[in-house]
């Protein structure tokens, strides 16, 4: 009986010793977890869209022109109107631009002017734009997603409107994220126990932690569903009074 009591007492002491040595994550310690949050800005750009509403022939002068521009490094155009009954050359010969000649008569309707302009531009485009027609309105759509210098009606009295401003694609630009919430989970938990916010440099810190395992996460936008989902990183603190770097957490903005 005494032997049994001794074994039982020893077992209790052994289990107690193990329990006292177990690393329990949580507050009340002297260590810290530090990391950085960066935002990756991915967005699809837009094509420049230009609507040109032409006039009838008797509203156009021999040599009148309007301007539209390709993307940076692309072709710059001027579209000019030639009345064959005039002896003089009406081409304004604008330097640095490609001229597109449209033949017309003063008796032409606005629809005939639109048809002639469409044909001339189609023959001259080098892939910078596509062009379509709706009655007397011509629509140019840039092939590239990029900012383009706005079109201009030049010397004509056409209505030349940029109906959609071109915008470049943004892909993979990483910047430090300020004032972003970062969540900390103690041990094997599933719900966050603490929240920190990033500073101007994207850095966050959780302080006053004990030895143990932790999970840190931030919320990011799912590229497919658009919903906010967590991005986790795990880390273990093994020593007191240490700063433990968890690295970079990337989110999509």
Give the topology, please.
Layout: H1 2-21, E1 27-43, E2 47-53, E3 65-69, E4 76-82, E5 98-103, H2 110-124, E6 129-134, E7 137-145, E8 159-164, E9 170-176, E10 181-186, E11 194-197, E12 203-209, E13 212-221, E14 228-237, E15 243-252
Parallel strand pairs: 1-15, 4-5
Antiparallel strand pairs: 1-9, 1-12, 2-7, 2-8, 3-4, 6-7, 10-11, 10-13, 13-14
Descriptive tags:
mainly beta, Immunoglobulin-like, four-stranded antiparallel sheet, single chain, 253 residues
Q: What's this model, at a glance?
A:
The protein has 253 residues and is mainly beta. Helices cover 14% and strands 46% of the residues. It folds into two domains: 23-43 and 172-252, Immunoglobulins (Immunoglobulin-like, Sandwich), CATH 2.60.40.10; 47-168, Immunoglobulin-like (Sandwich), CATH 2.60.40.
Describe this structure in words.
- With about 250 residues, the protein is mostly beta strands.
- The protein folds into 2 domains: about 25-45 and about 170-250, Immunoglobulin-like, CATH 2.60.40.10; about 45-170, Immunoglobulin-like (Sandwich).
- It has 2 helices and 15 strands.
- The chain has helices spanning about 1-20, 110-125, and strands at about 25-45, 45-55, 65-70, 75-80, 100-105, 130-135, 135-145, 160-165, 170-175, 180-185, 195, 205-210, 210-220, 230-235, 245-250.
- The chain is rod-shaped and about 95 Å long.
């Amino acid at each position: 009986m005494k032997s049994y009591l001794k074994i039982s007492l020893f077992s209790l002491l052994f289990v107690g010793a193990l329990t006292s040595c177990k690393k329990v994550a949580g507050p009340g310690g002297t260590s810290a977890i530090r990391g950085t949050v960066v935002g990756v800005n991915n967005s699809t750009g837009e094509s420049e869209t230009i609507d040109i509403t032409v006039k009838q022939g008797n509203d156009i002068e021999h040599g009148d022109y309007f301007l539209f521009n390709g993307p940076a490094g692309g072709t710059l155009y001027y579209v000019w109107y030639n009345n064959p009954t005039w002896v003089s050359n009406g081409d304004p010969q604008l330097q640095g631009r490609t001229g597109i000649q449209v033949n017309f008569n003063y008796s032409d309707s606005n629809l005939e002017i639109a048809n002639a302009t469409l044909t001339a531009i189609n023959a001259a485009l080098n892939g910078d734009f596509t062009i379509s027609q709706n009655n007397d309105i011509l629509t140019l759509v840039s092939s590239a997603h990029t900012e383009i210098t706005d079109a201009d009606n030049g010397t004509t009295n056409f209505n030349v409107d940029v109906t959609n401003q071109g915008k470049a694609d943004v892909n993979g630009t990483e910047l430090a994220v300020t004032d972003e919430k970062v969540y900390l989970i103690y041990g094997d938990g599933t719900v966050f126990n603490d929240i920190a916010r990033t500073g101007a440099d994207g850095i966050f810190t959780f302080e006053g932690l004990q030895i143990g395992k932790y999970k840190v996460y931030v919320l990011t936008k799912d590229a497919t569903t658009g919903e906010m989902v967590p991005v986790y990183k795990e880390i273990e603190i093994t020593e007191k009074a240490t700063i433990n770097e968890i690295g970079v957490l990337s989110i999509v903005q």
